[in-house]
Amino acid sequence: xxxxxxxxxxxLFTFISCSKDKDYQGAPEETMEVPxxxxxxxxLGNWAFHPQKTTLLSNYALDIAVIDENLEVDHVVPITNNxxxxxxxxxxxxxxxxxxxxxxxSSIGTIPIEEQDAVQVSLTIxxxxxxxxxxxxxxxxxxxxxxxxxxxxxTEKKIQAEVIAESYSDIKAAFLHYLENYNNGNKILLAGxxxxxxxxxxxxxxxxxxxEVLRNKLVTAxxxxxxxxxAEEGQYExxxxxxxxxxxxxDECGCIQNWRSxxxxxxxxxxxxxxxxxxxxxxxxxxxxxxxxADQDWFVQDDAYxxxxxxxxxxxxTPNAGYNLGNGNNFIAFNDLYKIRQxxxxxxxxxxxxxxxxxPNDQRPxxxxxxxxxxxxxxxxxxxxxxxxxxxxxxxxxxxKIDNCP
Length: 406
What we know:
Elements: E1 47-49, E2 64-67, E3 73-77, E4 89-94, H1 101-106, E5 110-111, H2 118-129, E6 137-141, E7 145-146, H3 157-181, E8 187-193, H4 195-208, H5 212-217, E9 218-224, E10 230-232, E11 255-259, E12 261-263, H6 280-284, E13 297-299, E14 311-312, E15 316-319, E16 331-334, E17 338-346, E18 349-356, H7 377-380, H8 386-404
Parallel strand pairs: 2-16, 4-6, 4-8, 8-9, 9-11, 12-18
Antiparallel strand pairs: 1-6, 2-3, 5-7, 10-13, 14-17, 15-16, 17-18
Helix pairs in contact: 3-4
């Protein structure tokens, strides 16, 4: 049985080859102009999800049916939909790259919001981050996405920085609009995937890092599908961000969780210098605290839930659309269908790695099978499934953090 991928439509994530070339690093000879967003975030049309906007999420059932090896419902995990309820915690979610093949490969630049598929954006956020509405009101802006080729190694670095900064200006404007008009002292949960995570990483440095009051509001920043997050080897603070640490325990508040996932048989890619944290113009504009130092730094990702010991993956979560299991529940989960571990090959190679490990006569589908056919699989592994793989572990940690946050 193979998923028809109805709820999560076609997603073309950034295709980037890996390279050790870093000739562009170092202080740029000229500065870049940092743009100001032209998007009006007081208009609800520029939000995919907003508590004052009626959307698919507004009354969407979030309960998860856990499916056993015989395709029967073992039990149902109840999840309350608080997307329109002020719980004291708000969710700010930034979606990944969602462009057509033509848009993604046509040229370096951004795509106007009106030329993007609003339904595709909303369905993808729902599939990846909809369950985070358990924690409170959901704010998910639409923005001028950068095309995938913008993130390529061969893209001229000043142009790359300017385009990424334009996309980022929308995310910053949306967040500041939320902060000024809706936050009202609430805790904040940041979450995103792929391009969305990179833009949130810039927001964390630009807006949160030097603001102690705002940092104290942060429950966690869940940056799915983002690699190459660095600090001095053995440390968890002081790399991309100066004052915001990387999470080291499940109940730690005000920290950053990042992860990316590959198959256990895959090689973990070497450093990809085409990404924003290595762009000298973004570094010069203080969107990054300090440059990466290959001789002293290591890459880190969230290892508070899964460690280096291989163990069963708890509740791989996927939308039910295309499977028709779970007695009509919108989300289903497969428990103990895969094994997972935090794999570190060296200081610059770390990832979650997953192995398909069905029970004897297991009838449950391998939802990761289609991801291996993606054009980016050799470089990004199970990138399209990062949230499906780690969402349960993420939610267990968020539960602990919210209980522990002041």
